[in-house]
């Protein structure tokens, strides 16, 4: 007890000092994109999501897709179980947990009806609530949490969809009763997780580009109206706010070679959302999304020329990627993230990126009983990037460093896929990556994409290469000129005149 009192006294005395280390550090887990596939099989066809297929000779009989999963398949249930167990082992008493959606696999045969969707989500709800009893868990809806995927209607009149998440997926235990009516209106809600800190869970599927039921509706589910009202209340009550959602605003970071990447949200919805985010940027101290399965962040200019906000995107639990020649999606090691924040002002301080080395885990001879041995620390943000915290200013510094320093960019790109580096990032890839991180609106993005200054400065060996190429071109031109002169002087003047007069 006296320890607690001492700590409280110390906080009061030293609340101006950032480095104090008792009760002022809060922690929360971010888990996202589990994509559990109940039909994952260690002996299934790796070209068909590791599903058993009686009619195919290609089933992997004899070889093993892996106990913990496969880079070409979605997560086996066992992987999700050990992941949540590892979270408990590593930090059992977080202030809360954010869970940013996509619990169903990327397979067509799964989507039989809404009840299957709700049952799959409830399985993970129950795993989280039994592992972390009495810890607030804040969920949101992903594009793979709906039937069919990517689609939700503009209003709730035609169905009881949102009631299904509460009743059948178990979210009644997660969403405070006072917020049920908001959730039933459009799948969104907010929760005060501690005095002075409100988490707003937005339903980004209503704004998501493939959702063709909402593209023409200015405010699907009246979510913008609600969001503004909550933020207005929060700023009047001097609360700080974290926004969580599945799909981040802005642009994807991966493009077809030489091409531009595509926006994630309908134009009008992205515009309305970013307008609200800008207006309330002084109280929004964090934004957290999933969906891209990759470890990156975004800094928000909102066409203002200066950065006034940021988001951090957590990589997925599923290691899956599509095996196409363009490498638009990339394989990742399964991961979860522990974020540090300040209890004093809710500022984001740091995160620890934990991961399971899938290749290593699958090759272990005996099943590890201790999940601590499976999940390891990949890196800690502030240590790695040498910045004091996760504030927008710090993220801008990191971004500037990534633009200038190819060694730093290479390491960033390795962390992007949680240590599973499968491709190199050439200039086109770097432009797509850096523009998607620094541009949220269409005009910013278009400007960025057309400006070559966003290419990471080449390494010395590339400089040497460019120099050699330039030298070769010069020599070729000189030789060609010399030979042209020789031929020209030896050919008859008459012939030349004749040709030129035709
Ligand atoms: C995962 O955990 C749940 C809940 O404890 C359990 O019912 C299920 O059998 C586990 N599945 C696997 C594959 O370990
Ligand atoms: C497993 O595959 C069968 C056959 O394709 C399908 O009917 C079922 O819905 C799948 N179940 C799950 C949980 O993916
Ligand atoms: C939910 O979990 C149960 C028990 O582990 C399992 O039998 C069932 O297939 C799971 N349902 C879905 C839809 O994933
Ligand atoms: C939950 O709702 C009750 C009213 O029903 C309210 O008093 C309480 O503050 C809410 N709790 C949280 C964590 O939002
Ligand atoms: C739809 O939303 C309205 C509030 O906008 C709410 O009163 C109603 O209960 C909801 N309907 C269903 C079926 O959840
Ligand atoms: C919306 O897209 C789905 C496929 O995602 C398609 O089946 C449906 O016909 C489309 N609806 C409209 C109104 O375009
Ligand atoms: C804003 O606060 C008022 C007064 O406490 C409350 O009645 C209202 O429901 C709140 N609005 C939202 C959107 O939470
Ligand atoms: C895609 O990645 C594979 C390695 O996983 C590589 O061999 C191939 O060249 C890449 N394709 C492109 C177009 O980058
Ligand atoms: C570039 O980044 C690397 C890795 O973070 C670092 O060691 C190196 O000092 C940086 N170089 C410069 C010139 O800042
Ligand atoms: C994962 O494990 C493999 C095999 O043990 C190893 O080659 C690889 O370097 C490891 N990756 C990371 C990011 O530690």
| Coarse structural class | alpha/beta
Shape: globular
E-strand count: 12
Chain-averaged pLDDT: 87
How far apart the termini lie comes to 103 Å
Percent helix among the residues? 25-40%
Number of helices: 15
Major sheet = 6 strands, mixed
- Cα radius of gyration in angstroms: 26 Å
Q: What is the N-to-C succession of helices and strands?
A: HEHEHEHHEEHEHEEEEEHEHHHHHHH
Q: What hetero molecules are in the model?
A: 2-acetamido-2-deoxy-beta-D-glucopyranose
* Major beta sheet, strand line-up: 3-2-1-10-11-12
Can you tell me the residue ranges where pLDDT is under 50 for at least 5 consecutive residues?
6-22, 487-502
How much of the residues is beta strand, in percent? 5-15%
Compose a concise summary of this entry.
By secondary structure, the protein is an alpha/beta fold.
How would you describe this structure in keywords?
502 residues, binds 2-acetamido-2-deoxy-beta-D-glucopyranose, 6-stranded mixed β-sheet, single chain, signal, 15 helices, 12 strands, membrane, metal-binding, 13% strand, alpha/beta, Calcineurin-like_PHP, Acid sphingomyelinase-like phosphodiesterase 3b
Structure description:
- The longest helix has 31 residues, at 460-490.
- It is globular, with a radius of gyration of 26 Å.
- The model is unreliable at 6-22 and 487-502 (pLDDT under 50).
- The chain is α/β, with parallel strands linked by helices.
- The protein contains 15 helices and 12 strands.
- α4 (161-167) crosses α5 (180-186).
- The protein has helices at residues 2-14, 77-90, 114-131, 161-167, 180-186, 223-236, 267-279, 358-363, 381-385, 392-404, 406-416, 427-438, 442-450, 460-490, 493-501, and strands at residues 25-31, 96-99, 137-139, 189-194, 197-201, 240-244, 284-289, 296-299, 310-313, 335-342, 348-356, 375-380.
- It starts with a helix and ends with a helix.
- One 2-acetamido-2-deoxy-beta-D-glucopyranose binds at residues 176-178, 191-192.
